[in-house]
UniProtKB/TrEMBL annotation:
The keyword Protease does not apply. It comes from Maritalea porphyrae. Keywords: Signal. This is Thioredoxin-like fold domain-containing protein. CDD domains: SoxW. It holds the Pfam family Thioredoxin_2. The keyword Repeat does not apply. Residues 1-19 form the signal peptide. Residues 47-131 form the Thioredoxin-like fold domain.
């Protein structure tokens, strides 16, 4: 009986640890999220230097969909491994006061940046271009894709893959790309 209890306790601890922790700001944290000075141009360059893309994730305290994203998606090894290998992810608090420097040079707080860029849902993931835009534009205009909300594993992961592969530059819309990948997964027996 003690063995069963210890096994269950270990499983619970492992699940909680892989789902991240909750910081003082009330947001779930992943130890692989990047801590930066929140200068968007600098973050794009840092990501590019490592062969990665920049993604911003807006969250808020008490967001049940943010918790779901951390507990079900970011704790999935297939998802977490892909994101860590291909993306620099910086977390933003939709109502936070940390300083942010927009691509157009405006210095804002996280909450004024969210308002300026028009992000009202959490989580919202904003995908930035592979290079810093040549002209001075805001993040919302420079973004190559935005994913508002928490989706299932394959929609979530496929969006990251589509962005990393620059699918937005081609003729295949994300929804068509996603449907094609789902069919491939079914053919391989990975989905029913």
């Amino acid at each position: 009986m003690l063995r069963i209890i210890l096994t269950m306790a270990f499983a619970l601890i492992t699940t909680v640890a892989s789902a991240g922790t909750i910081g003082e700001d009330g947001l779930h944290k992943q130890d692989w999220f990047a801590l930066t000075f929140r200068d968007i141009a600098e973050d794009i360059e840092t990501a590019a230097a490592d062969g990665k893309r920049l993604a911003l994730v807006f969250e808020q305290r008490g967001c049940i969909y943010c918790a779901k994203m951390h507990e079900e998606l970011l704790s999935d090894p297939e998802v977490a491994d892909y994101l860590q290998e291909h993306f620099l992810i910086v977390q933003y608090n939709m109502f936070g006061d940390e300083e942010v420097t927009d691509l157009d040079g405006d210095v804002l707080t996280e909450k004024t940046a969210a308002r300026k860029w028009g992000y009202v849902f959490t989580p919202t993931i904003v995908f930035l271009p592979a290079e810093v835009p040549a002209n001075s534009i805001s993040v919302s205009k420079a973004a190559v894709a935005t994913m508002p909300g928490a989706f299932g594993k394959w929609t979530f992961l496929n969006m990251f893959k589509w962005v990393f592969d620059r699918g937005y530059e081609g003729d295949e819309h994300f929804q068509k790309y996603h449907a094609r990948i789902i069919e491939q997964l079914r053919a391989e027996g990975r989905l029913k």
